[in-house]
Fold this sequence. Notes:
With 471 residues, this protein is α+β, with helices and mostly antiparallel strands. It has 16 helices and eight strands. The strands form two sheets. Strands 1, 4, 5, 6, 7 and 8 form a six-stranded mixed β-sheet that branches. Strands 2-3 form a two-stranded antiparallel ribbon. Keywords: Membrane, Transmembrane, Transmembrane helix.
Amino acid sequence: MDPSTGSPLFIAQEALCYYPISTIYNSCPRYLFYALILASCVTRWTGWLADVFLGAAATYAGTAAIQAFILVSSQQKPQEPSLITIPFISSNTSLRKDFSQLVTETDHLTLAPASLELDADAVLAIVVTGYLVFLPLQSWSRVLTHDRARNLLFYLWNILMLAGSICALVYAAKVPNTPRQYMFCYPDIPPYSDTSSDGWQDSWRTSTWNNSVWETFSNVSRFGQIGDICYNPCFNTSQILRQQSSLHSATVTEDDSAAPSSHGFWNKILYSKRYIYSLIILCLVLNCLLLVFRFLPYKSRIPSSQIVVICKSRRKIWNDFKEDVRNGVKRPVNEKPGNEEGGTATPVAKQPSHLRRLRPFLTWQFLKAFLHVSVDAGILFGIFFSMIISPFTIVAFVVWVEWTLYNDGPSQESPQQVGQWAYLVSIALLVISAGILTLKYRLASSTELDNEIDALRKHLSDLEEKREARS
């Protein structure tokens, strides 16, 4: 306590230390990414237009996946917790009107400086959405898988999104372990609701955190060197890919936490839905099922993973299923008792009727036919079920993750700033350029057409030579 006034020398209040979402992951670029994914699905039959939309979305999502790799491989090292002694303040103090989350009824607390990386939520939104959209695209779009080069690019992007999603989910699972943070202030100077760091100086921590806090508030001139209203130990932390001066410290309001000792605020910030993750796992299983169907040397009755092809061949698929089952029970039923030499039938004891009925279903031939039909039915069910569950999962995940990002706080930039609308203009210019290139033969002169014909003939000749060499 200050002996001259009788008030506490300083107070401790719960705080949130975080790096705000980077401008590249603000609302406008994220919504543009969702729009590009949707446009890729809608224009999948056009070829060139789908390439533009999916290519732009893939490069944006690829950047997010690489950041997910960096985040999970270079996580912030936790600092050793240290005990801080603080002035004892009763719970009925009048300071609560200025310090909503004041620490009361205790003379000590445990401090371990740390900070939240809110880019993790945006990265999770992008890479998981990019992975989930792969499931409906590979079942609906034949343009994306009609040649090996395009197919290779498509599956490489899928692998990148899967790896990025795993890293982002692993990082998100460790975020709730972030220790609670505190700021230390003079009781007569309320803090700002949000404060940014001016850059931490090593001289602000003399020895232990406890000594640093007490020495800072015991010396007014030393406190003035900090350049802030409150003393935030979390400002000495750092994150990879971030400038230390971009770190923010926000006060916790009564709406964020019901009581100083509860974790309501942290549970809201670090909120997660188990059923969302369950849907993601289900989509992963279905995706693996379709990949197994496409690449393993298994002779299936299902002609393709394309829904349109399956619908056209539904009658043939059903007849093939019935034929497999019929062949599985045909031979044992038609067998006649007797020896294999063609002699007189040997009298045998009459078998019970129920065993005779079960005998065709206990042969190895029927078991193979049953497994074949079961696997094909499972593939067929997985294909149709993926068409139902994957769009629902994408919508549910986007709604959930955008709500989480909304709770993370406002964007650093508004849609009117060039850092936000520049992405939309870039995509628009890319679409215009691709559209003009598709009309190049209509816009070309006769000389250009003649040169193009000669080049195509030479290219055709080279392809024929390669084909002959392979065959």
